[in-house]
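Notes continue from the previous slide.

Worked example: a multi-chain complex. Inputs as given:
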Amino acid sequence: MIEPAKTPYHHGDLPTALLFSARSMLEQDGVAALKLRAITRHAGVSATAAAPHFGNLTGLLSALAAIGFTELAEVMAPEHAVQPRDVALAYVRFAIANPGLFTLMFRSDAIDRQDPGLRAASGRAFACLAGLAQATPGADRAAMMVGLWGKVHGVATLAIDGMLSGLIPADSPQTIDAFLEQVFR
Amino acid sequence: MIEPAKTPYHHGDLPTALLFSARSMLEQDGVAALKLRAITRHAGVSATAAAPHFGNLTGLLSALAAIGFTELAEVMAPEHAVQPRDVALAYVRFAIANPGLFTLMFRSDAIDRQDPGLRAASGRAFACLAGLAQATPGADRAAMMVGLWGKVHGVATLAIDGMLSGLIPADSPQTIDAFLEQVFR
DNA sequence: CGCCTTATCTTTACGATGTAAAATTTCTCT
DNA sequence: AGAGAAATTTTACATCGTAAAGATAAGGCG
């Protein structure tokens, strides 16, 4: 989780404060709420205060997406997810727990996929999935990997977009988890 | 495919012309290019000419998304896709052939999912997938359906976003098709 | 045929957005 | 202390979506 640090510098740790504001607004009101002026307003600074740190809005959102990929890699790491099914469940659970952030991470017109920090973070997350496909024996590893990642990513995306209402139990996290375990049996 | 009709009315069949402009701009420059002023400019009318027909930008884009779902339902229809694998391949092929349109169809902040025309069209498309899960015998039909749709949707989404470069052969449509058949073996 | 209602389209106007440029403030370092 | 660099604000501009009001042309009806 992000937290605004003390005030070691000029006006505080503005980069972290901006990311913190952006994330809270993101989870509250969705990706549509991620306007530069709204974020800076929420952080209590002027509209152009983010430029020296992130360049432009895309840079700021790319940094936020990188945080998302770092956290996703964390919950999929081998120490937390031992079995293949654990990795799949961690992926979907992360998406359901952080719908706005997950949406941002895969929205290519709001972020810059070439951003070095973003590339590094997303690479770390995808390595967990790649290792998973490597572990399972099969004919074509690439096809296996695409199928596995596709299933995980598709279920996560559809769940976030509310496409599975009626198909997925909406009761409690426990029943959702039980249902997901059946999907990824 | 959309095509601007003759000029039976005032200035022509503007609704169709606007949808035609929007679609060509969409496939040319992506979802980010779908600005109301740009679309109307492309169609040669004033910026507010779309309002009487579509209300606002969301209405126009929802109508375009509805066209997308109609075409998706078409390629997944039983007369074109007999085996379950055919339905899956049609879904992914449609996404790869119409990346911008497919992205729009699932971008919830640009369209209105409650739009009646959109609901009808998307319902028709999803019915093809539901019937597919109904055909296959299995323990929990809902879990089967979610897993199947998720895999199909995830592979399509990841392919569109360029996430599968390196995993998927980029040579020719034939090799891509062969690869996909292996994914959905 | 002539008028009148209605739908279609344009003009105008307003608030909001992203960001470039210049000015201002604040920190760091010698 | 004073210079230089970094951070932040002020100002300005092009663009966006759309509401309101005016202009234009079509169809219905006498």
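Summary box: Residues 9-11, 14, 45-49, 51-53 of chain B lie near DNA strand C (CB under 10 Å from a C1'). The interface with chain A takes residues 30-32, 106, 108-109, 113, 139-140, 142-143, 145-147, 149-158, 161-162, 164, 167-168, 179, 182-185 of chain B (CB under 8 Å).
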